[in-house]
Amino acid sequence: MTDEAGPWLVVGLGNPGREYAGNRHNVGFMVAELLAGRVSARFGRHKRAVAEVAEARLGFGGPKLVLVKPLTYMNLSGGPVAALAQFYKVPTAQVIAVHDELDIGFGQVRVKFGGGEGGHNGLRSMSKSLGTKDYARVRFGVGRPPGRQDPADYVLSDFGAAERKELDFLVDRAADVVESVITKGVEPTQNLYHGG
């Protein structure tokens, strides 16, 4: 993976604002922030998109990373993502969305390329704005809501006390998965991480 292929756009999906910071829906932001910390990059407001962006390289001489936290609300994430993909000349095959996933149990991180959005408004907005569903997704399992709780209320609530004990480890694992997609590809990453 060399620079000739262009940079990688890693989009952490979430909602802006302190009141959303600990929500299940904001796990994409958490992973993007951890990745920025790993490569000693700082987020700053981008001049061409409603987003915070951090630029760095993955390892010495590695591929260029553009880490993104859209500052629109979740259902409008696609606009800033498409603007940044165009600005940085990133092919959609090198766009990675990191997001919460109701259809996967808490504690599991999965990766896939393309496919449906599973009712996720951030992914739906990205697919519409990019004009394709052909981008990678790192799916952070949050599980289904208990009882009859509305899924929308569930994802906009904070992780529970027991979940928070594992959260740092799982966000770290999700960041490892993102790095693996960039350096190894989707299929080898599935083989590495889907066992556990």
From TrEMBL:
Keywords: Cytoplasm, Hydrolase, RNA-binding, tRNA-binding
A Pfam family it matches: Pept_tRNA_hydro
GO biological process terms on file: protein quality control for misfolded or incompletely synthesized proteins; rescue of stalled ribosome
Active site positions, chain numbering: 25 (proton acceptor)
Keyword GTP-binding belongs to the record: no
Classification via PROSITE patterns: PEPT_TRNA_HYDROL_1, PEPT_TRNA_HYDROL_2
Site (Discriminates between blocked and unblocked aminoacyl-tRNA): 15
E.C. number(s) listed in UniProt: 3.1.1.29
MF-aspect GO terms: peptidyl-tRNA hydrolase activity; tRNA binding
Annotated site, Stabilizes the basic form of H active site to accept a proton, chain positions: 100
InterPro entries noted in UniProt: Pept_tRNA_hydro (IPR001328), Pept_tRNA_hydro_CS (IPR018171), Pept_tRNA_hydro_sf (IPR036416)
Signal peptide interval: none
Keyword Cytoplasm found: yes
Residues that coordinate or bind tRNA: 20, 73, 75, 121
Catalytic reaction list: an N-acyl-L-alpha-aminoacyl-tRNA + H2O = an N-acyl-L-amino acid + a tRNA + H(+)
Subcellular location(s) of the protein: Cytoplasm
Any GO CC annotation of this UniProt entry: cytoplasm
Assembly and oligomerization: Monomer.
Recorded family membership: Belongs to the PTH family.
Listed PANTHER family: PEPTIDYL-TRNA HYDROLASE (PTHR17224:SF1)
Function field: Catalyzes the release of premature peptidyl moieties from peptidyl-tRNA molecules trapped in stalled 50S ribosomal subunits, and thus maintains levels of free tRNAs and 50S ribosomes.
Database matches in HAMAP family: Pept_tRNA_hydro_bact
Record-given protein name: Peptidyl-tRNA hydrolase
Native source organism of the sequence: Micromonospora arida
